[in-house]
Every structure is written in structure tokens, then in C-alpha cells.
Amino acid sequence: MERKDLAVIPAPPDAAERRHAKGVVVYPVESLPLFDAAFYQAARRGMKKVGETTVPPRDGRAFTVPAGHFFRIVCPEGSQVGDLNLWNARDLSERFFSGKTRALHGTHVSTGDRLWSTLPTLRPMATITHDTLAWYGWDQDGAGVHDVIGTRCDPYTNLLLTGAEYHHCCHSNLCRALAAERNIAPQEAEPHIHDVLNVFMCTGFTKDTHQYFMKASPARRGDFIELFAEIDLLAALSACPGGDCSAGHSSDEAACYPLLVEVFRPAAHTLATWNSPPASAYSRSHGAG
Ligand SMILES: [Zn+2]
User: Fold this and answer.
1) Interval between CA 242 and ligand 1 midpoint (Å)
2) Per-residue pLDDT reduced to its tens digit, 207-239
3) pLDDT digits (tens, 9 = 90+) for 154-167
4) Distance (Å) from CA 198 to ligand 1 centroid
5) Domain annotation covers residue 45
6) Cα–Cα distance list, 69 to 232, 244, 267 (Å)
7) Which of 179, 185, 211, 243 has the largest CB neighbor count within 10 A?
8) How far is the CA of 30 from the centre of ligand 1 (A)?
């Protein structure tokens, strides 16, 4: 897709100068508390597995993680992308804020990054404490793993682009998972489904058109990402119908594998100095007095 408008809108005489303006990081994060690797390492040591959930291929499942517990999302069989939603287990209106997480940490997240909640709470819901794919970094195409760019595959966009209905997109899988967990209809669950963390997905933007692209996930059997629940979490995870997302999604064509969620409880004494983060202290006056 070419930017045809560029051809008909004449550039101003100082176009080059304007293009050379220096970029500044929009949200410098130096003022945030540092990732306390020693604390999380101590808590990881000796933690005990207290639960697990298997997400079948092309389907979704919900699970809960109490504050102060770890959870891992594992590829137990083959390379498989997962789409993750997070909510405050006590208040579904507080949920994962993919856009602000991206603005704060970058397009892809890994160990040390936090998953932030929506306004007005804006607090870390979870902290990434281990990532067996951290070696991937950025590849020659500018792609990375675990993105907060993509929204989730959904049946509406699929219908828009292909004219066909497909019912196992991540959006629908997440709807059914939340509906089953809360004993409500999928249509009632749907407004709570939000932009995801794309676990294991390898993505970037094309250099010429800046379009979102995906490529085969580098995840291998046994790879996992591990997170620490900073607040009581309700989560839903979809095993994307795109499988490793090397070719397509929103269909039954790709090879798909299950995902495994494991929940771990650290020894209580390792959390002695830890406090669940409070909601944002902003007054919410919005200047109205
Ligand atoms: Zn998907």
C-alpha cells in the first residue's frame, strides 16, 4: 500500500529539517521502581505448584491467580501462540491496558516488564519474571516475541476481510472462556474482552508500509513465560487458531497445539517485604475542582 497522498501534497521547503527533529522517548520510565530481580528470584526459589489449566487448541480457558503467586504459560507440545486477557479478579472493569503497556515498555515485553491496568487504576497487574525466549531479542526484520501491538484475531475482522464466519478466533475463545468462568452468556462476557498480550507471537512492522506482520513463532516445546501476579487476577488465555502464526489465522488450516498454565505459590517468608501495588493516587478531579 503506497501513501499516494504524498505524491500530491507538496513538501514544504524545510521538509528535511522537520524530518530531522530529534525523537524523545514519550514515557521515560526511569522514575518507576526498578525491577527487583533479587526479590523475584528469591520468591521463585522453592515455590510450589498449586494448580494447572490446559487450554485446548483453538479454544480458551479462564483461570485465577492469587496476588503474590507466579503463573507460567507453557508450550507443552509444539509452537503455539496464546492470547492473554487479565482482569482484577474482584472488579472486571480493571483490566490489562495493552496500549499503555506498549507506550511504557515497548512493542514487545519480556523479563522485568510489567503489565499495566486500565485507567483509573493504572498499576502493575503482573510482572514478567522469566522468559525462555528472551534470547530472541530483535531479528533482522525488526520482529520480536510477546507483542502488545496486535489486538487478537476476531470474527468481525475476519468477516470483513473474507466474507466468512469463523467461530474459533481468539476473541471468541476468550468470550467463551470468560462466559464459562462467570456462568454468563458469551454476549455478556464480550464487552470485557480486551486487547491482549500476544504470548509467543513473533511480530513486527514491515519496513516499507509499516504494516503489522507475523512470522513463525520461535517457541519450542517447553518454552514458557512466567509472570508474578501483583494483584488478584482472573485471566483468560486462547490457543490461537493460527498455531505458530507462520502463515494465517482465523481458520482451521494451521497446526495447533494446547497451552499449559501452571500456578505456583512462593514460600510466605519470601514475600514478607512485598506489598500489592495500590491503585493510582490521581485525585480524578480532572481540573474541575
Ligand atoms: Zn488468535
Assistant:
1) 6
2) 999 999 999 999 999 999 999 999 999 999 999
3) 999 999 999 999 99
4) 8
5) no
6) 9, 28, 10
7) 243
8) 33
